[in-house]
């Protein structure tokens, strides 16, 4: 009996399933026709144009142009995010690899010294004690036998379109717990520092480590906020950029007309947990030779 009903059931079910399938197929066919007709009705020409252009673009996307004698034969992609226009600040995720960062730290570790300050007229080492408490060292790309700083320097030059010859040596810094750099300008105001033969135009910071807590690069005057108030130079406020291993931060200290951008004031918040390593490249407005 059981087998009989089963067989009977199958006989009845199979044609039903077949009919259902046909119905669904037809319904689907009809619906898709409706949908595409609708889409075509909305913007028929545009759609076709977009498709053709899209195809052509993606094909062309990585096809390099004929280049000049000082140009390059391939197309580069360096992702970035505009963090601010006042100051002009850009963030570059994944600018260097963790291995590259480690190679830079390993070299710097061997020659760390307490960081120094450029003194304003009337200031002394003693009077500015506590402003900048990190340790650091200068390493030029040519001194780095691993080639990592050479790679990073080339990439910075491309990202900024400021030639390598305009840059100072890398300043590799380590901030331990409690260490910081009070807000300051990278550019030297002649009114405070005396006449300058060249000026710092831009700064590129490559974060060589993550920091568990604190250690942000901060711009307290971002969008001109706090600028006319009595800003306390030790306070950590405004736009804060959290250091992340391998990421880069670029900002300009000079406006396009060459005057110092007041909003480029920045500092390093105290590290409260962990350790911060950063490689800084200061880029001048003229070719820079440290031995002149
Ligand atoms: C930026 O600053 C200007 C004036 O300094 C102000 O009018 C504007 O609202 C600010 N923008 C934001 C997003 O806070
Ligand atoms: C430079 O540009 C800034 C911003 O536009 C302006 O406030 C300043 O007066 C300019 N300085 C000179 C010397 O042109």
From TrEMBL:
Keywords tagged on the record: Dioxygenase, Endoplasmic reticulum, Glycoprotein, Iron, Membrane, Metal-binding, Oxidoreductase, Signal-anchor, Transmembrane, Transmembrane helix
The segment(s) forming the Fe2OG dioxygenase domain are 166-285
Q: Which reaction does it catalyse?
A: L-prolyl-[collagen] + 2-oxoglutarate + O2 = trans-4-hydroxy-L-prolyl-[collagen] + succinate + CO2
Task: Note the Pfam families from the entry.
Answer: 2OG-FeII_Oxy_3
A GO-annotated cellular component: endoplasmic reticulum membrane
Q: Where in the cell is it found?
A: Endoplasmic reticulum membrane
Q: Name one GO molecular function term.
A: iron ion binding
What EC number(s) does the entry state?
1.14.11.2
User: Which cofactors does this gene product need?
Assistant: L-ascorbate
Membrane topology of this protein: Single-pass type II membrane protein
Q: Which residues cross the membrane?
A: 12-35
Chief localization class?
Answer: endoplasmic reticulum
Q: What class of enzyme is it?
A: oxidoreductase
Q: Which family does it belong to?
A: Belongs to the P4HA family.
Q: Which PANTHER family match?
A: PROLYL 4-HYDROXYLASE 9-RELATED, PROLYL 4-HYDROXYLASE ALPHA SUBUNIT
* Name of the molecule in the record: procollagen-proline 4-dioxygenase
What is the native source organism of this protein?
A: Erythroxylum novogranatense
